[in-house]
Amino acid sequence: MVLSDFPQPVMKSNSPQIPELLAPAGNWECAKAAVENGADAIYFGLDKFNARMRAENFTEADLPELMKFLHLRGVKGYVTLNTLVFPQELKQAQRYIRAIIAAGVDAVIVQDVGICSLIRHISPEFPIHASTQMTVTSAVGVEFAKELGCNLVVLARECSIQEIKKYSSKHKLLYLWKCSFMGLCVSLIPDNV
Q1: Percentage of residues in the chain with pLDDT exceeding 70?
Q2: What is the mean pLDDT of residues 139-151?
Q3: Does the pTM of the predicted model rise above 0.85?
Q4: I want to staple 82 with a disulfide (CB 3.0 to 4.6 A). Which of 23, 48, 131, 158 is the partner?
Q5: Residue 109 in contact with residue 82, Cβ under 8 Å?
Q6: In this structure, is residue 16 part of a structural domain?
Q7: CATH number of the domain encompassing residue 122
Q8: By the 8 A CB rule, do 154 and 132 touch?
Q9: CA distance between the termini of the chain
């Protein structure tokens, strides 16, 4: 595996050593606040297939306008598909994924390994981020996520900084996220990048 196997995330800064500032946004007010306060990207769920379905969320109908708003300001938008999807839901999930891609979403954050396969079937190049709910806690897990087609891995909260350094140096990973303090995520870029 070589560094070029992983696409480099585009950040506002020209320096790859500055992490992407990612903020949660469940509605327009939160999205605008994140953008106004310097977020490089926001993540949000829709009304289906996200771990915060009972919270306020954007809808599929909001996606085109939201992505236009974000992209005009140089901000990325990531949709969370961070729940398990059951066989009877696959047709709806497929339709949802197609709508997400068509709306110009920059990546999806995925829990279900089957959804990774479905996304790759629909679009071989669309960026997939392995969610912290995928519970990747080892170098083997990172390799498995890459084999699923993931471009980025959000490591489990239980991983230490030492473990992250070991995984990134062993696999020459371009980009890892570490979630801590519940919803607060930070990115770590290996020194050898």
Answers
A1: 77
A2: 89
A3: no
A4: 131
A5: yes
A6: no
A7: 3.20.20.70
A8: yes
A9: 14
70/74 Cα distance (integer angstroms):
6
Place of tokens 């062993």: 170
Structure tokens that stand for 29 in this block:
């007010």
**Which residues, at least 6 apart from 66, have a Cβ–Cβ distance to it below 8 Å?**
28, 31, 44, 58, 77, 103
- In b/e form, how buried is each residue of 33-49, taking b as 16+ CB within 10 angstroms? ebbeeebbbbbbbbebb
Which residues touch 43 (CB under 8 Å, ≥6 apart)? Answer: 22, 23, 24, 25, 77, 78, 79, 80, 109
Kind of pairing between the strands at 128-130 and 184-188: unpaired
User: How far apart are alpha carbons 140 and 127 in whole angstroms?
Assistant: 20
User: Of the candidates 131, 140, 133, 188, which has an alpha carbon nearest to the alpha carbon of residue 165?
Assistant: 188
Please check whether residue 193 lies inside any domain of the structure.
no
- How many Å apart are CA 84 and CA 70, to the nearest integer? 28
Beta strands 184-188 and 22-24, pairing class: unpaired
Domain extent for 43: 3-10+21-188
Quick one: which H or E segment has residue 120?
A: helix 113-122
- DSSP annotation of 101 reads H
Lowest mean pLDDT among 52-56, 85-89, 105-109, 186-190: 186-190
Tokens read off for 3: 């560094």
